Amino acid sequence: MSKKVKIILLFLGLFLLLAATHSVLAQNFGTNEVSVGLNNSLGTTDPRVIVGHIIQILLSLLGVITLILVIYAGFLWMTSGGEEDKVRQAQKILSNAVIGLVIILSAWAITSFVLDKLSQATGAGGASFDNGSNSGFSGQGVGAIGACSVETNYPSDGQKDVPRNTSILITFKEALKLDSVCSDGSGATCACNTTTCNKINPGAIRIFKKDLGDDCSKGICLNPNSNVTDVVVNVTDSNKTLILTPSAPLGSPSANTDYSVEFSNQLKKIDGNSMFKTCGSDFFEYSFTVNTSLDLTPPQVSKGGIFPLPDNSADTQTSVAGNAAQATISFSGSSCPNVYTPAKLISAKSDNPNVTEIPSVTGILSKTITSFSLSVPDGATNTVQLFNESTQEPLGSATFDNNGLAVFPGFFSFQVKSHDPGSKWTVVVQPEIFSDTLTVGQEQYTFVSASDPSAAYSTYISVPAGCSLSGLMSNIQAKLSGNTDIAITTASNTLILTARQAGTNGNDCTLSSTGDALVIKPFNGGVDPGITPIPLGGQYDRPMNTALQINFDKPIDPITVSGSADEVFNYIRIVNANASSSLDKVACSVDSDCRSYKCENKVCIGNYLGGKFMVSNQYRTLEFITDRECGVNACGEKIYCFPANSHLSVELMAANLKTCTSSNDCLSLGSFNTCSSTSLGYSTCQDSNGKNYPLARLDNLDGIVDTAINSLDGNRDGSADGPLSFYYENNNQDLAKKDKYKWSFYIGGKINLTPPQITSISQAQGATKVNLADPISINFNTLMLSSSLHTGTSVISDGAKSVTHKSINLNSSSPTPLGYWISSENTDTNADGEPDFTTVKINHSVFSPSMNYKAQIGSGVKDIDQNCFKPSADQTCGVSPEQSSCCFGTATSDLDADGNCK
Fold first, then answer.
1. How is the chain split into domains, by residue range?
2. Nearest Cα to 556, choosing from 314, 868, 305?
């Protein structure tokens, strides 16, 4: 390579390096951008932001000067004509320019570091907050929300005007190790499971006034200290959400007070690691401002905030032109179904290296766990504890008998001669596997191995040896050919089922399976002969696969409303609206005879519909999805349906109120200073207008409350009256009914499988001059399932492989971790009382200047009918069946292996 070529390459390399440096240092900081900043935000922005702008502008100007020097030196060298003086002059200029570049980059790094540490040291997380957005610098600890282990929290980072009697709520993405959360009266950590173990562990959870600082910052609290440590802990059944209730109101009645909350690395996940181990900072910290008032306003169900809307009559039908059509469905196999396999022992050994005895393990019954650990506690002689080896979850304990036998019901029997204190063992098993089933219409079929004699019976389907899918499908077709509800044809490894009777009733034909081996969608396409529905009760009957949604006017405490229907039925439930429907264990003929809409073997099962309640949207939205599987959506995820053609009622319970025995009990409650008798059967503290003090009974919380523990105001009259009677939303004139709440609606016989679409985004692709604090807003064309609007990913398995579906994410190239959280709002565009579309907001800690950010809405997001959002599709991209995805504004079918934009 010639000397001249080397010189040219060196020149080009330096030029490109400086051009890149200039891009980093000077992006969006020209004269116009500074002017816009001063006019729109800098005049009221944190001074540190202004200093950061000025320093980075100066550094960018120095970068320009360095670039000019490099160009001049290159020109001087290239035109030197071999004159040594000019070459030496050019080399000297280049050398100085490189030194200057190093200084500029070092100054930029030092400036960023100092400003970042300054923002942390001064509690930057408590900047101003308004309508879901904040401004000013945010500390690194905020970065754990969204991209890392925190899903959401209340109050939000930087929120202002928080009432003094608020609870502090936080939801993690992984289950907590509870003995890192709570402490007892002596300060020892414990597992949050008794009334004597329900206070925060002050080393893991620290609540303090910002101006006084954290007295527990070293993991050991000073004594005395100014931190708020008298805080009661409640944990939801998932062990993911904490409700922290200070025993005394925060702040002061005379002045606003800034608080910080930190969850340190002493807070552990179920595996014993720090909850924040993989985050940008090994802690989570945020701030908010408490006002001077107590929240004495009870929560209400927002007007127009329920879905499905109240409906007083099922749709009728009228004749129109058109022919009847039969419902059809196809399904295929991705792998072979499970057949019954008894559990068996793989290995059993001692974990003590000097012990050679092999334990005896018999009667293995475990259905899911593959590896166990057992240990004899120190100081014990005959007690042995059982744990899930992979999660270290305790599974129980047993006592050795005289023969060294310990029995763990539901798992196995364990026998060993020597069991000294401290002894440990590991047991590995192949869990018991139950046969998968296939339900078609009224018949349920069980899969068995080809060698099983029962394979010849009419309701048993043989699984071929070696798992031949074509053979399996042939066997299924042979058994289903005798089913009276459907006709069956085959195409390759796909079976096509057709309802024998034309009309919409065919859409209700049951097709479901246990396990993931069969890829099943619901029956659809059945059309009645020349009829169309007409809503008599004011609303169209909702599709079977709809979810139920309740929006409250303020955040609610999730402890009594989140979990399975069995866990929360005393507080909220969904039942047959027919008052004469039968209770559990009463004889029945069809599902609609039962309060639970579940009639099995001619007996009603349960007193309410089964399913799951989920809290989302900053704890303002409650949703319910049934446990009746009825197919899959376009992403292969199971969907669940309400009973076809059903009339359902939703019942919400108000909590009983704080009691009193005399007016002396009310002296500290301001205007609620009179102890008066009520229709509840006990006395409460009331004001001069006869309104009750809204606080619920803390010793026996039995209804829906907000974050200040105020009981539900079911009839929306502004007063908490306790659980007297049901206010019925369908007849909203009856305000004398209080303070429980209910409404009823109708479910039709169809399933809606139309996916949602994005109609607009507030920060368009490639947008510049974005306000540092504004949330990103995404409008959909329909009502969305709020509980699917979360950060991170979800994993869907089709039996052959697992696919990761992205949810809502916000990424950046900033070295400071970005915190972000999701909220949503429903909008009624035609004033008919029914919400028509949802706006999703990605709220975030303050953007860093001169950084690129990327927002993502993935296929983990679903609409109210559980239909997944097709990756990045919108109404302006021009997607088609051949190019069904929209990536970066362009229709395409070219996605990566997981179905995401490349």
1. 3-122, 129-290, 300-315+535-657+694-752, 328-332+434-530, 344-430, 758-892
2. 305
